[in-house]
Specification:
Distance between the termini: 34 Å
Structural class: alpha+beta
Largest sheet: 6 strands, mixed, barrel
Oligomer: single chain
Number of domains: 2
Strand content: 15-25%
Number of strands: 14
Radius of gyration: 32 Å
Length: about 400
């Protein structure tokens, strides 16, 4: 142990003899490890944010969208055509076991106005159960009721952004909000939710009864989405299949035809987002891996140069009793020390870059302790792999030839 510590001190002295060269050698490792830490931090942060956003949809929720991803060979996308009706929603609640809550949904964007102020925002038409289904509490006032839905009353629940833009410093309850020139009375204010996975402001929203949206604003008879909640996670898969079978039957879709709707669960939506982020993480990880390899090649190159420069020193050490494996251990420790110090600097740089992205861009980042340990280990392994050949070459020098070397 004492011999290893002594060798380590000699290695550090040799490295600090030429600080600039040592730093430039470590630069590849620093960039590689920093890229790994930043990539992992962004990936973990995005995944956590996605999970939070999916959880905000509510528990045990199944989403039924009008339109299908592929219909008659054409990519139409979710919600692209009005194929779902209120009768479909009622049939799902009535005929699918385990479905406890249903909320038909229509969406539009509109200019809304209050007094002399106006704002362009999203308007959602939902059922009275929507707030409980989405676990989105009303912090001021109260949500609209089932009676408001049946009567298509002109009442609205608004997000915090609408309050800030149209009613700064005021309590908006009971005030009039004009949506497409139709006056709606504000009955509640939602708790703030912040940005979604796509970076959209979830608080920039007005929620009204879906009947009011369909009759008073849009003049339509179909809905864009049906939100269905089942009693337990075990019922999600069978309910999803039963909803699909029921809608195919109701829409008279023959076995050789594609669905004119899309049924998705929270898990499937999360998988879609994660698949997209995994692709980006894979590309960034490839860049990080290349940086580590380039850093390792730099270490090997400098260590070979060091062996040549210190040939006489090696000869003297061997002449006074150092054995081949002592010389090999010295140069191997130098290589590992270079890569380990570079790895630690890279970790600090990666964490700093992650914090900077969070501060300047608002991107969610999360740096797991496990990956910090892995990064240190990887940089040490790079030092061993790329330092082994120069160390072995140094240990095989002939002491007499080494002493003669000028």
């Amino acid at each position: 142990m004492r011999r290893i510590l002594a060798t380590f001190k000699i290695a550090l002295r040799a490295l600090f003899r030429n600080k600039l060269r040592a730093f430039l050698t470590m630069l590849g490792i620093i960039c590689g490890v920093a890229a790994v830490i930043t990539t992992v931090s962004l990936g973990k942060g995005a995944k956590a944010q996605i999970e939070d956003q999916i959880a905000s949809l509510g528990e045990n929720v199944i989403l039924i969208f009008s339109g299908s991803v592929t219909r008659n060979g054409i990519h139409t996308g979710w919600g692209s055509s009005g194929t779902l009706t209120l009768d479909d929603a009622e049939a799902i609640q009535r005929e699918v076991p385990g479905v406890t809550v249903i909320s038909p949904e229509v969406r539009t964007t509109s200019q809304v106005a209050a007094g002399n102020e106006n704002w362009y925002t999203q308007v959602f038409g939902e059922s009275a159960d929507y707030f409980a289904l989405r676990q989105w509490p009303v912090v001021q006032g109260a949500p609209f009721t089932e009676l408001d839905v049946r009567s298509a009353n002109k009442v609205a629940v608004i997000g915090q952004t609408i309050v800030d833009q149209l009613y700064p410093g005021e309590v908006p309850l009971g005030k009039i909000l004009r949506i497409k020139n139709a006056p709606f009375i504000i009955v509640g204010v939602l708790s703030p939710k912040g940005l979604s996975v796509q970076g959209q402001d979830q608080d920039d929203v007005v929620i009204i009864p879906y009947t009011s949206a369909m009759k008073r604003l849009l003049g339509i008879t179909t809905v864009r989405t049906i939100n269905a909640q089942v009693a337990s996670p075990e019922l999600i898969a069978p309910a999803q299949q039963q909803i699909t079978d029921l809608l195919r039957q109701r829409h008279r879709i023959t076995p050789d035809k594609d669905d004119d709707f899309t049924v998705r669960t929270q898990e499937e939506i999360a998988e879609r987002f994660n698949a997209a982020s995994e692709t980006m993480r894979g590309l960034l990880a490839g860049v990080a891996a290349v940086s580590l390899i380039v850093g390792g090649i730099g270490i090997m190159n400098i260590m070979l140069v060091s062996v040549t420069e210190r040939t006489r020193e090696i000869g003297i050490r061997m002449a006074v009793g150092a054995r081949s494996h002592d010389v090999m251990l010295q140069f191997l420790i130098e290589a590992v020390t270079l890569s380990a110090i570079g790895g630690m600097i890279g970790i600090l740089a990666g964490i700093g870059a992650s914090k900077a992205l969070t501060y300047w861009k608002g991107w969610a980042t999360l740096t797991p302790l496990g990956w910090i340990i892995i990064s240190v280990g990887c940089s040490a392994v790079v030092g061993i792999l790329f330092g082994f050949y120069p160390a072995r070459k140094a240990s095989q020098l002939d002491p007499i030839d080494a002493l003669r070397y000028e």
